[in-house]
Design brief:
By secondary structure, this protein is mostly helical. About 65% of the residues lie in helices and about 5% in strands. Strands 2-1-3-4 form a four-stranded mixed β-sheet, with helices on both faces. The radius of gyration is 30 Å and the shape is elongated. The relative contact order is 0.12.
């Protein structure tokens, strides 16, 4: 136990000094998650709308209640300002996505049965302009319909106008047009989708570092010298592999914490499940790397083969092109990434626990098989003439 612990500590200290390695394994996945999550994010965030109501008439209360209605919050987040100039400044300065000014004669025109309109100012984001403009237009369409009815039916037709101010949002549905099923990320967002894909991918890279360390120490003769000391050689090898596994644990913590609090990724809250899936992914990645290393013998060859396999598994499991796994059928399921991704996404979107555990079970079986293969082939990795 003491030999294992000393070796693990030494490996961890050695890897902590490899700054380039740490950047690749921690910073690169965060960058890829941000770039791909932002590029393919089709969700329209609520538009920040600057509102100035210059009307002091009878309809002012109804307008104010409309902007305070909970049913428009998925589309717009209004901020009431004190002047028209401040609304213009907010839109031009980018602190607001859209501006609305209710004119001072709004109530008077409605009382006279005239058509009314609001002054609006578009911001820099075209999608948010569409969402805000749809809300405003829907509300004014109802109001002008009432004004037209006033001319025909008289003042009683305006009764209840204020009480119906929230109906406008119910008529609006904002979504991305032209997005077919191939562009869908299922029940999770784009950034959630890629957070899972690249967490799984780079955890396997972390597991590969153990195989690289063993091959390098074998080439340099370090393992042969360690074999001759009065300590368990198995514990030494286990310590080196455990150091790589510990690096994978640190990767998991960094990626999940950073994406949760900086990118706002919702991981679903079942962190026990995330920890288990991550651990199984690390074991599977380490087993695969050690198995390849037992045939490759050199670091360069092993890295080339491992990179090729890992990129292939990431691609066919949908980690590069979203939902391509639905088109590839069985071939997409014959790898580590598919089952790890499916289990993590199931935890994210609240899928059936039975289905999540099935995915975890298959991942555990793959990890167990690869670990057994790695143990059987391990002498080929650590011994000169095995």
């Amino acid at each position: 136990m003491r030999t294992w612990w000393i070796t693990l500590t030494y490996e961890w200290i050695k890897m902590s000094r490899m700054h380039a390695l740490l950047v690749v394994l921690a910073a690169l996945p965060l960058l890829l998650i941000y770039l791909l999550g932002s590029a393919f994010d089709s969700e329209i965030k609520p538009a920040k709308v600057a509102v100035y109501n210059a009307d002091q008439g009878a309809m002012r209360e109804g307008v104010d209640a409309f902007w305070q209605g909970a049913d428009i919050l998925p589309y717009v987040r209004p901020a009431v300002l004190s002047s028209e100039a401040r609304v213009r400044e907010a839109v031009q300065g980018g602190t607001a996505d859209y501006g609305v000014i209710i004119p001072a004669d709004y109530s008077d025109k409605l009382a006279a049965g005239e058509s009314v309109s609001w002054h609006t100012f578009d911001g820099h984001d075209g999608r948010k302009n569409i969402a805000a403009h749809s809300i405003v237009r829907s509300y004014l369409s109802q109001v002008n319909m009432k004004a037209a009815a006033f001319k025909v039916l008289g003042p009683e037709s305006l009764s209840g106008l204020e009480s119906r101010h929230t109906d406008a949002a119910a008529l609006v549905k904002v979504q991305t047009l032209g997005g077919g099923s191939d562009q869908s990320f299922g029940s999770i967002s784009a950034i959630q989708y890629y957070s899972v894909a690249y967490l799984v991918m780079f955890l396997q890279y972390g597991g590969m570092t153990g195989a690289i360390s063993l091959l390098r120490q074998k080439r340099e003769g370090t393992l042969q010298r360690l074999y001759g000391i009065p300590a368990s050689f198995s514990a030494v090898v286990a310590g080196i592999i455990s150091g790589a596994a510990l690096l994978g644990v640190m990767q998991t913590i960094i990626i999940i914490v950073f994406t949760k609090y900086v990118y706002g990724v919702d991981w679903g809250g079942a962190y026990w499940g995330i920890a288990l899936i991550s651990l199984l992914t690390i074991i599977a990645g380490s087993g695969l790397a050690l198995t390849i290393a037992s045939f490759a013998n050199t670091v360069k060859t092993m890295q080339t083969l491992f990179n090729t396999m890992l990129f292939s598994m990431t691609f066919v499991s949908g980690g590069m092109i979203a939902m391509i796994q639905n088109k590839l059928g069985l071939i997409s399921k014959l790898n580590i990434n598919f089952w790890a991704n499916a289990a993590l996404r199931g935890l994210m979107d609240g899928s059936s626990r039975v289905l999540v555990w099935q995915n975890i079970g298959i991942l555990a079986a793959i990890a167990a098989v690869l670990a057994i293969f790695a143990i059987i082939r391990l002498p080929k990795v650590v011994k000169q003439h095995a």
